[in-house]
Specification:
The protein is of the alpha+beta class and 222 residues long. The chain has a single domain, classed as NADH Oxidase (3-Layer(aba) Sandwich). The chain has eight helices and six strands. The strands form two sheets. Strands 1-2-6-5 form a four-stranded antiparallel beta sheet. It has a two-stranded antiparallel ribbon with strand order 3-4. Strand 3 and strand 4 form a beta hairpin. The longest helix has 22 residues. The N and C termini lie far apart (42 Å). 24% of the residues are buried. The structure holds 3-iodo-tyrosine. The site of 3-iodo-tyrosine has 9 residues, from helix 3.
Length: 222
């Protein structure tokens, strides 16, 4: 290993206190408008926008800069149909057998069920994979670090970037998700993390009436 190389931090920006406060408020107002949407329109979305948002996700802080993620953008209707079929089979198992009553009770106010039409209707399914290790062409493996944290942060940035461009998202987690490796032909070092359903909301989209915890419930200043 050579010596670590460093560069001056060039493009960091600071703002006067009033502008900081204004920016903090504006960001909150922008992000609080984001809602998880389950009713999508099939209206097309330019792929260039998705590509740019994925570049934003790829800037996420992560363990040892291994960038242990891979994003598969599914737009092919046949592949979306296959994913819907496989996801609905797992979801039926979940809702009818696997989920304990306590979990079903916790979900009741969201009105979710095993039917997932959005997996075919939305223009894109962004399937996010985590890489617990790197697989080299000679068959060698290198371990990755803080993989769940890293991929979670990248996913958060992606959700934020897509919202920022006026796109709706749904974080969908069929469980188990192993079928995604098979359908999308992803290698054994990758595990599906979640499916980010992406597009415009349907004209008549409705969202559950929910509230967010207050500041004092989510934060402590000591
Ligand atoms: N994966 C299932 C169930 C589900 C679980 C949670 I936790 C949610 O917040 C919502 C749904 C589904 O997608 O329906």
């Amino acid at each position: 290993m050579g010596d670590p190389k460093f560069l001056p931090l060039k493009d960091f920006r600071t703002y006067p206190p009033e502008e900081m406060a204004q920016r903090a408020e504006q960001f909150y107002e922008e992000i609080r408008r984001r809602r998880t949407v389950r009713h999508f329109s099939s209206q097309p979305v330019p792929m260039a926008v998705i590509r740019q948002c994925l570049l934003a996700a790829g800037t996420a802080p992560n363990g040892a800069n291994r960038q242990p993620w891979h994003f598969v953008v599914v737009q092919d209707p046949a592949v979306k149909r296959e994913i819907r079929r496989a996801a609905e089979a797992e979801e039926r198992e979940f809702y009818e057998h696997r989920a304990p009553q306590e979990w079903l009770d916790a979900l009741a106010h969201l009105g979710t069920d095993a039917d997932k039409p959005f997996l075919e209707i939305a223009p894109y399914l962004i399937v996010i994979f985590s890489q617990s290790y790197e697989l080299h062409p000679d068959g060698g493996k290198t371990k990755n670090y803080y993989v769940q944290e890293s991929v979670g942060i990248a996913t958060g940035i992606l959700i934020n970037a897509l919202h920022h461009c006026g796109l709706a998202t749904l974080t969908h987690t069929p469980s188990p998700m192993g079928f995604l490796n098979r359908i999308l032909r992803r290698p054994q070092n990758e595990k599906p993390y979640l499916v980010l359903v992406t597009g415009f909301p349907a004209e008549d989209a409705r969202v559950p009436e929910i509230t967010k915890k207050s500041f004092t419930e989510i934060a402590t200043i000591i």
